[in-house]
Design the sequence.
């Protein structure tokens, strides 16, 4: 039987009818299942005791995107506009969890909201409405368009010459086209994070976690879309898988 790492994906909490449901977008599950390892969903119970038990089962954690935004109180600001979709349960689950993952050395990969969660959890801040700030692109997807259009390439990212992405790609090319489906982004980068890539307007599009012993990485775009066809996606998921396998093998060795 093939040895595969186990990847935990924290859930969103969504109200359907009168009840709350814990959910993760299928596109994230499929990309991780195909490219990295087997998936288990981590409920957003905001109970770190439960999570500590569940973390013994995983070899990596993937923080997915979401329609919701982080409550700005986590980075010392007020909500700019009422009615902004938030997910209190996810905030109280993932934000305290991130430092623990880093301390435990568990590989961590964040996408879109996941990138923003890592930045906030480590002390950074966010722009709440990028499209309203002079000098920034409108990073939102086009409304009322088919999924294929919304997830199509929207702008380039410029990779830093010393970035891990350049190493993983093993190429000299520093510009790649990515999709863009967000209105929030990094305002102040948290201590201990290093920029890997930026958008043409200067917005941080990728960073690494300096203290992560095996893998700590996040991107603002959505690499799960056409994950087997895009060079950036292939490189990132491959590096994440290798780190998760390394963690799994070390954990097995320690258990003997």
Sequence:
């Amino acid at each position: 039987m093939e040895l595969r790492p186990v990847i935990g994906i924290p859930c969103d909490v969504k109200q359907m009818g009168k009840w709350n449901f814990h959910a993760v977008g299928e596109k994230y599950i499929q990309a991780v299942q195909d490219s990295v390892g087997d998936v288990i969903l981590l409920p957003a119970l905001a109970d770190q005791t439960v999570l500590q038990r569940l973390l013994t089962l995983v070899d990596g954690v993937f923080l997915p995107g979401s329609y919701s935004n982080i409550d700005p109180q986590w980075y010392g600001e007020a909500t700019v506009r009422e009615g902004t979709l938030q997910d209190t349960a996810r905030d109280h689950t993932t934000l305290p969890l991130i430092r623990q993952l880093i301390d435990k050395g568990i590989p961590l990969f964040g996408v879109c909201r996941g990138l923003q969660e890592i930045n906030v959890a480590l002390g950074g801040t966010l722009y709440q409405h990028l499209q309203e700030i002079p000098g920034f692109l409108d990073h939102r997807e086009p409304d009322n368009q088919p999924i294929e259009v919304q997830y199509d390439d929207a702008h380039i990212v410029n990779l830093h010459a010393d970035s891990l992405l350049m190493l993983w790609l093993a190429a000299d090319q520093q510009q790649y086209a990515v999709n863009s489906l967000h209105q929030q982004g990094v305002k102040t980068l948290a201590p201990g994070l290093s920029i890997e890539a930026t958008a043409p307007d200067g917005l941080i599009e990728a960073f690494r976690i300096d203290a992560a012993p095996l893998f700590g990485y996040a991107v603002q775009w959505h690499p799960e879309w056409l994950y087997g066809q895009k060079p950036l996606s292939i490189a990132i998921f491959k590096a994440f898988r290798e780190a998760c396998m390394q963690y799994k093998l070390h954990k097995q060795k320690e258990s003997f």
Notes: The two ends are 20 Å apart (CA to CA).
